[in-house]
Write a structure and sequence with these properties.
- Helix content is about 80%, strand content about 0%.
- With about 80 residues, it is mostly helical.
- Helix 1 runs antiparallel to helix 2 (about 25-45) and helix 2 packs antiparallel against helix 3 (about 50-79).
- The model has no long low-confidence stretch (mean pLDDT about 85).
Length: about 80
C-alpha cells in the first residue's frame, strides 16, 4: 500500500474515533463500514463492480443500527 493511501486511512480512522458514540458500537460500526467502502472502491477500480449499491447497503446498515438504538431509548423512556 503506498504511503499516501496509508496516510489517508490513518486520518480516516483518527476521525472515526472522534465521532460521538451515538449508540453502543457506533464507532466500531463506522470504522468497519468505511473499511468495507474502501475495499469496495479498490475492487471497483480493478473490476468495475457496482460500488454505489454496496455503499448504499452499508450506509443503510448503519442507519438501521441507529434507528434500532433510538427506538430502544424511546421504549425505555415510555416504560
Amino acid at each position: 500500500m503506498p504511503l499516501n493511501e496509508r496516510k489517508i486511512i490513518s486520518i480516516i480512522l483518527e476521525q472515526c474515533q472522534k465521532l460521538e458514540e451515538r449508540c453502543p458500537g457506533y464507532q466500531e460500526e463506522i470504522i468497519e463500514t468505511v473499511s468495507e467502502i474502501l475495499e469496495e472502491e479498490r475492487k471497483h477500480s480493478v473490476q468495475g463492480t457496482n460500488i454505489q449499491q454496496k455503499i448504499n447497503d452499508r450506509c443503510n446498515t448503519v442507519g438501521r443500527l441507529l434507528a434500532q438504538h433510538r427506538g430502544q431509548i424511546h421504549a425505555d423512556q415510555e416504560a
